[in-house]
Amino acid sequence: MKRDIKILIERLRNIGYLSSINASLEWDQETYLPKKALDLRAVCISEMSGLIHNKFINLDAGGLLTKLHKSATSNKIKGKDKILILETWREYERARKLPEGFVRELSKTLSISREVWAKARKNNDFKAFLPSLQKIVKLMQRKAEYLGYKETPYDALIEEFEPGLTTTEVERTLNELKEFLIPFLKKVLALQSKVNGKKLRGKFPLQEQAEINEYIARTIGFDFEAGRLDVSTHPCTIGVHPHDCRITTRYKVDDVLHALGSTIHEVGHGMYEQGLPSEHFGTPLGQSISLGMHESQSRMWENQIGKSYEFWRHFYPHLQKKFPEPFKKVSLKDFHQILNRVEPSLIRTEADEVTYNLHIIIRFEIEKDMIEGKIKLRDLPDIWNAKYKQYIGVNVPNDSMGVLQDVHWSGGLIGYFPTYTLGNLYAAQFYKTMNNEIKNIPKLIEKGEFGPIKKWLRKNIHIKGKMHTASDLVKKITGEKLNSRYFQEYLIEKYGK
Ligand code: CO
Predict the structure, then answer these.
(1) More confident residue, 104 or 156
(2) Which among 427, 471, 204 is positioned nearest to 327, based on CA atoms?
(3) Ligand 1 centroid from CA 82, angstroms
(4) Which residue, 336, 352, 338, 364, is CA-closest to 392?
(5) Sign of the C-alpha dihedral computed for residues 138, 139, 141 and 146 taken in this order
């Protein structure tokens, strides 16, 4: 048995190396790849993905995985090895359930849809995207049938991003949050003092911006000997290996806060990747738990920490020194208020902490109805616009700024949106517990001592890999199930006074 486990780990590690190669190719594609090489790179990555997929299906060669799975379910194998086997089996089963012809059809449809969507968004033409979306939804419904589910086909799709979580649980949590957020938003808007956000505009040379972004990333704990910070159109984190994590940001010459927010967010993701146990590389024990758990790390650094008064008590003098114009004339208090300004808006990615989850709830409600066949896709713009009016209080002027704004659906990412909100909720719940366990976090932040926070996250979350599901880990760390109350309390404390 020991020998079989060793062989399985070798096979997984081998796949891990190929995935690292692919991740490096993707990073290069996002950052430095010459424009003319885009087509070639897409083919290379897709060939590589095929190779990885085949290797994954071949994990069972000689009946190895089947045999180990039997021993694990009958408790002949226990502990970490058992988890490694069961988790590998879960993913293997999912991969095996999808017929090859279906996978090919899906990947072909998606690669065309991305372009169709980009064009439709540019031309504000939902009708042009509609046939692609209809195809994708049908394929996703088929995918759910192949994979199987208990209550709704949406369950099968969420499982890919947030293993172990059911639609019913997500729905209950998001409804609870919605009931709180809609009236709370109105209250915050009435309370909020008027500070002019334009005060922070200026001219910020990119080189100087890069310096301060790197300085903050390093100070809060990103390890530059095991990672890089570069520029890309869409900020992202690509984990090649715990010793090699690539994060990216995006600079705007007139708005220094834009990049800082993205950088701190990606550093949160990056520290998770750097904190995974390298001795388990390639196996589930060396992988992050779920998208929601990943997002909890980025959101905690970006919001709970990176938008706190204490954080800027520490870093604001650095910012003022780097860019005396305009910051010498803006008090820390005003700066902090502008940074945390709540403003109902149309675009999800630009939303503040209070409205952000309403953007997600709208998407969740719509995509669940799409998959369950409860709405006609041609009515999507009307449904979208009505929800934006009702939940956030804004009028959507056109579909480009409305239902066409996100890339997700065109890429077949249905069941993905809820993980953003789950991340916010996990983050608030963890932060509360961390505050009870580490004394005086605000004081530490003010002094620029981020080590204890990083250490706590590493010990409780990063180093565990996939030892637990997200819901189990939340319970283990905080003593109770996922609960939106902590996030609500965080918002009330910060914005409700
Ligand atoms: Co993120």
Answers:
(1) 156
(2) 204
(3) 30
(4) 352
(5) positive
Ligand 1 center to 251 CA (angstroms): 17
The answer, yes or no, to whether residue 290 has pLDDT greater than 90, is yes
pTM across the whole model: 0.95
- Candidate list 30, 266, 273, 302, residue with the active-site label: 266
Q: CA-to-CA distance for 235 and 259, rounded, in angstroms?
A: 9
Reply yes or no on whether 310 is catalytic. no
**CB neighbourhood size of 273 (10 A):** 25
**Crossing angle, helix 380-387 and helix 353-371, to 10 degrees?**
150
CA of 218 to the centre of ligand 1 (A): 19
Helix (H, G, I), strand (E, B) or coil at 164: coil
Map residue 10 onto helix, strand or coil: helix
Task: With a cut of 90, say whether residue 424 has pLDDT above it.
Answer: yes
DSSP letters spanning 403-415: TTS-SGGGGT--S
- Nearest to residue 246, comparing CAs of 223, 218, 220? 223
Distance 415 CA to ligand 1 centre (A): 16
